[in-house]
Amino acid sequence: MKEPLISVRDLRVHFRTYAGVVHALNGVSFDLYPGEILGLVGETGCGKSVTGLALLGLVPPPGEVVGGEIRYRGQNLLSLPPAQWQALRGGKIAMIFQDPAAALNPVFTVGEQMELVIRRHRRMGRDAARRQAAEVLRSVGMPEPERILETYPHELSGGMQQRVMIAMALSCGAEVLVADEPTTALDVTIQAQILDLLVDLKRTRGLSILLITHNLGVVAETCDRVAVLYAGFIVEMGPTGAIFQAVKHPYTQGLLAAIPRPSRRGNPLQAIPGTVPDGLQPPPGCLFHPRCPFAWDRCRQERPALLEVADGHQVACHLYGGEAAR
Amino acid sequence: MKVWEYILRRLLLAVLVVFGVSVVTFFIARVVPSDPAALWVGPRPSPDQIAAARVKLGLDRPLYIQYFYYLGNLLRGDLGVSIKTHQPIVQDLRAYLPATLELVLVGMAMAVFIGIPLGVLSAARRNRLLDHFSRLIAVAAVSIPTFWLGLLLQLIFFGQLRWLPIGGRVSIETTLYQPIQTVTGFYLVDTLITRNWPAFWDALTHIILPAFTLATYAIGLTIRMTRSTMVEVLQEKYIVAARAAGLPERTILFRLALKNALVPTLTVLALSFVYSLTGAILVEVIFSWPGLGSYVTSAIINVDFPVIIAVTLIVTVFYVLINLVLDLVQVALDPRVVLK
Torsion angle of alpha carbons B168, B170, B172, B173, nearest 10°? Predict the structure, then answer.
């Protein structure tokens, strides 16, 4: 097996609020390999976005990383001097966001914004940076890149804006792209184009992508592997095919059952009963047990660890044996 | 929409505004119970003298005829003469207006260069020590009485330290040995143009205390305004995106965020600029600065209406122009704003 590019181990993020400490991430571990798309799925508030931001060291206050490791090429980013991590940001590790209209600065042209980023990471003059910007724009399928450089973000469509974001992210030779719900705000047809572009970039550039989404359809179409996040903890992880065909964890089963299907027309939609646990007081034992139809005594006392049940397919559930996590 | 077309249209509208203000002030001046003719001839006049003055000033004619004469003179650039001093008002303004403008402009520059950076850093270090410190400064700056601050600064920088002069635009030595050739009436500019370095230095040291005293209020406003808009802007997604792109914090704050946060601050500054044209009276008195504020105040005390009307018109023109400039600046800063 190849060496992972990004390796996250036991990542814990807390938010200190007036009401108390919110446990946003409770020991997240995963690897991202070169040239793969890893899907990170889960409900709103499960910690997907925080995980993405943590990879760039941008957990917003009052949140803070309280434990664990984030390794990039073996180097623990959390112990890196801030200036060095800043140089990696937008350089080797880049990020794109859910709403490209909000993620682009409204009062600067596309060209001005791209130039700033390029000249931050590459030693080059204005003109060279501009040529580089035009070239990257062309490589993400933008027609007339020179004209696009002169436009302001509000003059572009949502799909074009997201392409600009992707171009900006790739303009300095990124190896890792954190894509936080990159298609959620877009029309379905544009969504498909952006996803195709991401898959294409993976193939042609060997880009590694952490694709954060709540849309299992997006996962099925684009991801090589999937990690299912529940209440700040990965409950199941494995190759996309295995997750969809040999689903193990009761939570993932619930998620898949909740997808509306034409064949079930006329029947009520399946929903997972209960709500996401309170981050202030996570339940003891398995975080999912209050909503789990199969919960038994052990689930209420011990938190299950992520264990391999098939080749590359891991699940954290007492139904599949194994020992408790700490 | 062409920018020039827009400016032209706004200027035409401005003429209407100035005309309206001239009508209102002119008629208010005439309904207020006071006798300009009696004022014109001075203390203890005879009834004949007053009657003669009334004819001379045209006060015996119908009000609307008086106004048309006034308007005719105005269009030729003649603002009339002061009833009290019999001096042409244009001549007075040529002396007082540049003095006030210079003082106010230096004060506004101080507000920009002190207030905006403090506001930006305050927002960036929200609820930390620097923020508390700069908010304290902001509250103090808007609440300290001008006369008290002016006197205090004079006590410290003139009385104790002897670093800066106590008042006036230049010292007597300069007037005697390095006389300033008037070109624009702005001493800092005139001395630069004529390379009169000692006089430039002298004028500079004279303007620091009064300009700072005048600026304190604007500094306080600028800090608060900049801070509050910056706090909002810093929560925008594009700031997170800029950080994710590895851009340095300095660039993010003072370039990417500030350009989004500048318009409210500039609006407040512009309004306080126009207010200071006549509102700087306390500063002018304390620092014996020969400005518009003291000029119009003595005119008000003497019921010297031609002067009051003239200054009102001048201030109106500045209001209208500043508003136009503000709108243009807003368009320049934000491409989403369209001229209509």
Answer: 150
> Is the per-residue pLDDT at A219 higher than 80?
yes
| A236: alpha, beta or left? (left if phi > 0; alpha if psi -120 to 50) | beta
Q: Is residue B39 part of a domain?
A: no
pLDDT over 90 (residue B339): no
**Could you state, in order of their start, the residue ranges of all structural domains in chain A?**
6-80+225-320
Cα distance between residue B247 and residue B75, in whole Å: 56
Query: SS3 for A266?
Result: coil
Question: Does the structure show a pLDDT above 70 at A323?
Answer: no
Q: Are A186 and A104 in contact (CB under 8 A)?
A: no
Dist. CA A178–CA A211, nearest whole Å = 6
From chain A residues 113-172, the ones with a CB under 8 A of any chain B CB are: 116-117, 120-121, 152, 154, 165, 168-169
Nearest CB among B245, B248, B256 relative to A168 is that of B245
**pLDDT class for A310, splitting at 50, 70, 90?**
confident
Hey, what's the torsion of the CAs at B30, B33, B37, B41, to 10 degrees?
-140
Calculate how close chain A gets to B254, using CA atoms only, in Å.
13
CA gap B167, A65 in Å, rounded? 58
Interface test with B, best of A105, A114, A154, A164 (most B CBs within 10 A): A105
Q: For residue B193, how many C-alpha atoms fall within 13 Å in the half-sphere facing its CB?
A: 11
| Domain assignment of residue B336, yes or no | no
Chain A contact for B336 (CB, 8 A cutoff): yes
Residue span of the structural domain in which B268 resides: 90-303
**Averaged pLDDT, B79-102:** 91
Q: How many angstroms separate the CA atoms of A198 and B193, rounded? A: 62
Residue of B nearest to A98 (CA): B237
- In the prediction, which pLDDT does A1 show? 56
A63, β-bridge pairs: A15
- Would you mind telling me the total number of residues written for chain B in this entry? 340
Q: For residue B137, is it within any domain? A: yes
Q: Is B144 buried (19+), middle (13-18) or exposed (0-12) by CB count in 10 A? A: middle
Share of chain A above pLDDT 90, in %: 54
CB B236 within 8 A of CB A103: no
Q: Which residue in the block uniquely carries the two structure tokens 């596309």?
A: A110
Whether A91 contacts chain B with CB within 8 A: yes
Residue B3 lies in a domain: no
A295: confidence class by pLDDT, cuts 50, 70, 90: confident
Task: Report yes or no: A93 and A157 within 8 Å, Cβ to Cβ.
Answer: no
Q: State the average pLDDT over residues B317-327.
A: 92
The answer to whether residue A111 scores a pLDDT higher than 80 is yes
| CATH superfamily ID and name for A6-80+225-320 | P-loop containing nucleotide triphosphate hydrolases (3.40.50.300)
CA distance B197 to chain A (A): 40
Q: Is the CB of B256 inside 8 Å of chain A's CB atoms?
A: yes
Total domains in chain B come to: 1
Encoding tokens for residue A272? Answer: 């997972």
β-strand partners of A41: A213, A228
CA angle, A116 then A120 then A121, to 5°: 130
The position carrying tokens 């190896």 is A175
Pairs of residues, one from chain A and one from chain B, whose beta carbons lie less than 8 Å apart: 75
Query: What residue in A sits closest to B335 (Cα-Cα)?
Result: A107
The model carries a pTM of 0.85
CATH code for the domain in which residue B179 is found? 1.10.3720.10
Question: How far does chain A reach from its first CA to its final CA, in angstroms?
Answer: 28
